Structure formats: C-alpha cells, structure tokens
Amino acid sequence: MFTFFRLLRIVFVALRYRLDELVLSGIKHPLAYSLLRVVRFGRAPRTPRGVRLRLALESLGPIFVKFGQVLSTRRDLIPLDIALELALLQDRVPPFPSEQAADCIEAALGASPHTLFKHFETDPVASASIAQVHFAVLHDGREVAVKVLRPGMRDIIEKDLALLAVLARLVERLAADGRRLKPRQVVAEFDNYLHDELDLIREASNCSQLRRNFSAEHGREHLLMVPEVVWEFCATTVFTMERMYGIPVSRIDELKAAGIDTHELGRRGVEIFFMQVFSDGFFHADMHPGNIFVSDRPETLGRYIALDFGIVGSLSEFDKNYLAQNFLAFFRRDYHRVAQLHIESGWVPATTREEELEGAVRAVCEPYFDRPLSEISLGQVLLRLFQTSRRFNVEIQPQLVLLQKTLLNVEGMGRELDPGLDLWKTAKPYLENWMRERVGLAGLRKQLDKEAAQWSQLLPQIPRLVHAHLSKPVVPHELNSQMERLLRTQEHTNRVLMALCAILAVGIGVAIWALTRI
C-alpha cells in the first residue's frame, strides 16, 4: 500500500513540475510528439528543465534529494544545464525528535546517552537526509560530536530505490538517449553510495584512515586536521568523533578577520587534494564547503578540517599513473601521448586509430591554452576528455568520475579563496615530482623496500625449490597424465577385443560341432 501511494505522489509531483514534458521531449517518436502537444496545452513550460527537476526532487524528500546530488556528479552522462542545477541541491531536512535520537543511541550502545556521556545536547547542531549530529561531552572531559542515523531509513531507502529502479528501466526503454545515459547503472551506483552512508562504522573507518594519512607519522599534520574516532561509542547507526572547531571555508570575510591568509589557504587546498589522490590513492570525495572548515584556534590557526566521510574515493596504481601522465601530457600539449594513454589503458578499442583520437583530444584541449592559466579548469578538462572518449566507446570508470567531481569542488573552493589561483603552477611540480619518484631510481628503491619483506621469506627457499624442480621426471606432469589416460584406454580396448575373440571362437566351435552332426 505504501508503494502504491508513494508512486501516486511521484506521479503527482512529476505532473506538477512538468517532468512529463521533460521526458517526452527526449523521445523521438511521433506518438511522443502528439502526447507532448497534449500535455503542453499549446505552450511549453516557462521554467528551465533543470530548475523543475531540482524542485521536484526537493519536494519528494531526502532520498530523492540525495539521488539528485549523486546524479549531479555524472556530468559525463547528463546535460550540463541539468547537472549544474542539481548541484544546488542541499540537505534542507528538518531534524527528527531528540527522543528518537536518544532511543537510537540506547539501542545501538546499550545505554541512554545521558548515562554514556557526561553531557548530551538534545538539540541537534546539524540535520541532513541520512543522519543528524548532536554535541556531547565524555566523562573524561573530551568534547565529541555524535552522528545518529535517522530511524527507519533502511526501509524507506529500499522502497524508494525499488521505485527509482522501475523509473530507470522506463527511461532506458523510452528515451532516445536512454541506453547511453545508463539510468540503471546510475541507480545502482546511487544504491551503493546510500548503503555505504547507512553504515556509520564504515564512515568511521574512512575517517580513521584519512586521519592516519595526515598524521605526524607522515609529516602532514600541519596540512589537514581529521577528527579522532571514539570507537567505544560507535555502531552501525551511531558515529562518535572528536568535536572540531573552525570556520566554514566559504566564509571568506570571517577567515580574513581571523588573520588567515586565504591565498595560501587556496594553494594548500590544491596540494592536499593532489597528495590524497597521487600519494595515497584514497581521497575525501565530498569536499564541498559544508564539509570543509578552517581552524580558528591559536595553536592550529589556518589548518583545514575535514568532516563527513560517507563518500571516499580509491585509486589503483594504474589509475594514478594514467591520470598523472594524462595531466602532464596536457601541460606539455603532447596530444599524441594523451591518445596513446587512452589506448594503452584498454578503455579505447585496440582498433582505434591514434591519429583520429589525437585530433579529437587536440580539439578538446587546445582552446584552453588561449586563456590565462588562472582561468583554466582541470576538472573541466578531465570532463571534456571523458566526453570525447565516449565517442570512441570508452567506459569511464566510476572512481574517475568521482575524482572529476571532487576536483571541480576543490577548484571552486580554491578560486573562491584566491580568484587568481593558478592550479597549473600548483599541480605541475607536484605531478612531475611524483612521476620522478615513481619511475626513477627513487621509485625503484621504494619498490625494493616495499618488496623486501616478501623477498626475505622467499630467498632462503629458492635452493630447495630449485632442487625439487630438478629432481622431478623430465616428462611434464600434463604429458604423464595424457599417457596414463592412453594406457587405460588401450587396456580397455584390449579387454573388449579379447571378449570379442572369445565370443567368435565359441561361435566357430558351435558351427563346427553342428556340421559334424549332419
């Protein structure tokens, strides 16, 4: 019954915001044109399609808002005007009652929050579509933030995801670009994101990993502050972390009033991003201004603070190498190398002509060099490369799309802090140094150090393994097996022949006996 009424509400909202016109306008069929004229009542909607879609998702509730946010990152699949409008979606969600939050904490941790904590603020400090946050104080005096999952979220999500899957199948069948836009894959990707965010233990683990990457052990504690996880007060529905104090990175005037150098802050933000991507292969993938603060405490003044670790990205060594070489080739205008990298990666069919792909890449990249370097967007370059690759039947990897979305966030944040920020000047030396460390003597030494522990176990075994190998019969095992099968077959054949001979001998004997009796 819930599903039926939910579906009715979706249909009502779709009609209210004229999403029917949005769908029908994408279907190239005479019947669709006829229906389009009927639903338009002789006139087209006055509000742009992206705005109408955003308003519809906001009215349908937090799950659809979250879906719009994820969809806005897929600029390689959806039109740019819709992606830009969906990027404006915010989690304007009213908090759920504090009594329910207390019940959730008690169910997850086994005791009331007023028992677990010395002080627990009943009024939430923040409320989003998936969870809300309360401040608290531990009995040892430490100040913490307690993130509590919304009650009943899993059931609501499962039902709404089922409806989204149905809508995705309809779009794929009816819309002209349905298959290219891959709506079912987008919904599946959204499903993964949501279920990751529903498990707050997973988010706590992401937080802990990022904190370790920027610890004093790695010499990076001056760049980024990440809250400490309080594991004894964590569960799948509750995440307790160190409380952080700072100014949202988007409040430029407050940052300047606190004596923070915003130009240096912008440059350092780009450095932190590239460090996460190329050094660690593990990056915070939701770096919008609401999740990034700057410390205003005297002892840590000007350091970035990262929050909300529900979405992170991971890159393999292959991905990092591919990206670094692509960026460096672009810096040097070596479009032939960019084309080679696309083919070598295996994402372009091996039959693709390098010259044809090189020309397409040149058409994408060359116009950017007519602009001042401070106006060039690495994120937009990566996006255009993805769009060009689509012409050559390339399947863009999800982790690279997530990276491109995060890079756009970092660029926007950096240039808001410093309008003249030159990302090329910041990124190029870092990438060149990373490549030197990877392919030069330093990279070889690093790999030898990394493999030394494994080699120390294998080297003493080599003489025994060599002796065991040389002691084996010269005939390979596979040939031995074949010969054994052949011998068994021959023995079976011999037994059959002997039986036939015996039968034949008996038959001849009977015939001779019969003839002698005549």
Automatic annotation (TrEMBL):
Domain of life per record: Bacteria
Keywords: ATP-binding, Cell inner membrane, Cell membrane, Kinase, Membrane, Nucleotide-binding, Transferase, Transmembrane, Transmembrane helix, Ubiquinone, Ubiquinone biosynthesis
Stored SUPFAM superfamilies: Protein kinase-like (PK-like) (SSF56112)
InterPro entries (UniProt xref): ABC1_dom, Kinase-like_dom_sf, UbiB, UbiB_bact, UbiB_kinase
Any one Gene Ontology molecular-function term assigned to this protein's record: kinase activity
GO biological process: ubiquinone biosynthetic process
Entry's transmembrane regions: 496-515
Pathway involvement of the protein, from the record: Cofactor biosynthesis; ubiquinone biosynthesis [regulation]
Domain called ABC1 atypical kinase-like: residue spans: 89-341
Entry-linked NCBIfam families: PRK04750.1 (NF003404), UbiB (TIGR01982)
Family: Belongs to the protein kinase superfamily. ADCK protein kinase family.
The protein's name: Ubiquinone biosynthesis regulatory protein kinase UbiB
Gene (name only): ubiB
